[in-house]
Amino acid sequence: IPQGEELVKAILKLKEEKNAVILAHYYQPGEIQDIADFLGDSLQLARQAKDTNADMIVFCGVHFMAEAAKILNPTKKVVLPDTMAGCSLADGCSGEGLRKMREQHPNALIATYINCNAETKAESDIIVTSSNAETVIEALPKDRPIIFAPDKNLGRYLSKKTGRDMILWDGSCVVHEAFSMERIAQQLADNPDAKLIAHPESEEAVLKLAHFIGSTSALLNYVEKDDCQKFIIATEEGILHEMRKRAPHKELIPALVFDESCNCSECFYMKRNTMEKLYLCMKYELPEILIDEELRLKALKPIEAMLDLSK
Ligand code: 13P
Ligand code: SF4
């Protein structure tokens, strides 16, 4: 495997030869973000995947994101540098579990966070991402209860924002749950001129302290546009790479986690992707995301329902 600059050149060459597009999430390692054709949050990346003319989609993110790309654009080859790039939310929720919840609440609508696998999507009425969740939930008929899965923190936050009662699946993101409210309160006390911004996957106690709550793209826009010069960032540390580019003169402080030996929160799933694995997956066009057609069509329906509502 080539190294350094040669590795970058080799990836770009493969991209050209294979008419590939590299899509990367903001939590990816910085060098992968730098080489990507499109960088975005989960909704932006799903849209890019749906509309691309490339023959091969190289998805630098986690498995559920690459799977969503395949669901939306089945004629393209979709590859992911490391198939072990999972997600604690997706791993903790199953289609069978949702079916059981529906049996218990037959009148409920199931709104599911995009951080889930295809079987779970297939059992859902509508999908949401963190950037359109409020709009989607507001649009659901008021006379039906809502089951929200799998992220209880995002669900609780949405229920408060929209005033809709929700039956919550008991799932969470291991990365955002690691933030320590006590240590962040101390960071705010030590930096009275800073604002705390947080992803809604964070726990309620952290969200209560936050000056702004939003998806990865919303957090980026906020830091760029707001007058404040100092921010404490409660989301995965990979986002700092793009934030520093967009707001080079602002001070960005990662929010602290419970583990005192760490000074930021990393998603070890996202970080399974490396430049070397990216090169190999483009060269061999593996590992490829494949999905049974019947399941794909079932999973597509609630994703399309979401896209129709959040144009
Ligand atoms: P965004 O849609 O805000 O990018 O979030 C994806 C994610 O996995 C957050 O942990
Ligand atoms: Fe999943 Fe959390 Fe990693 Fe996002 S940060 S991919 S929700 S484990």
UniProtKB/TrEMBL annotation:
Binding residues annotated for iminosuccinate, in chain numbering: H25, S42, Y113, I114, N115, S130, H199, P200, E201, T216
Cofactor dependency: [4Fe-4S] cluster
EC number(s) reported in the record: 2.5.1.72
Pathway info: Cofactor biosynthesis; NAD(+) biosynthesis; quinolinate from iminoaspartate: step 1/1
Binding-site residues for [4Fe-4S] cluster, renumbered to this chain: C87, C173, C267
Record note on cofactor: Binds 1 [4Fe-4S] cluster per subunit.
Recorded superkingdom: Bacteria
Main location: cytoplasm
Known catalytic reactions: iminosuccinate + dihydroxyacetone phosphate = quinolinate + phosphate + 2 H2O + H(+)
Enzyme class: transferase
Keywords in alphabetical order: 4Fe-4S, Cytoplasm, Iron, Iron-sulfur, Metal-binding, Pyridine nucleotide biosynthesis, Transferase
Cellular compartment(s): Cytoplasm
Reported function: Catalyzes the condensation of iminoaspartate with dihydroxyacetone phosphate to form quinolinate.
Family: Belongs to the quinolinate synthase family. Type 2 subfamily.
Protein name: Quinolinate synthase
Protein source organism: Chryseobacterium candidae
Gene for this chain: nadA
